[in-house]
Amino acid sequence: MPSTQPISRDRIAALLALSPKHRIVVIGDAMLDVYLRGDVDRISPEAPVPVVRVRDKRHALGGAANVAQNVAALGAQVELVATVGKDQSAQQLRDMMMAIGGDTRGLVAVNRPTTTKTRVLARAQQLVRVDEEVDEDCTPAEIGLLNSAITKALGDADALILEDYNKGVLVPAVIAHALAIAAKKKIPVVVDPKYRNFFSYTGATVFKPNRRELEAALGAAIDVEHPETLPALVERLGVESILLTLSENGMALIEKGATGVHRIPTTAREVYDVVGAGDTVTAYLAAMLASGATALEAAVIANYAAGVEVGKLGAATVSVGEVLEAFDLGVVG
Question: Active-site residue numbers?
Answer without folding.
Answer: 279
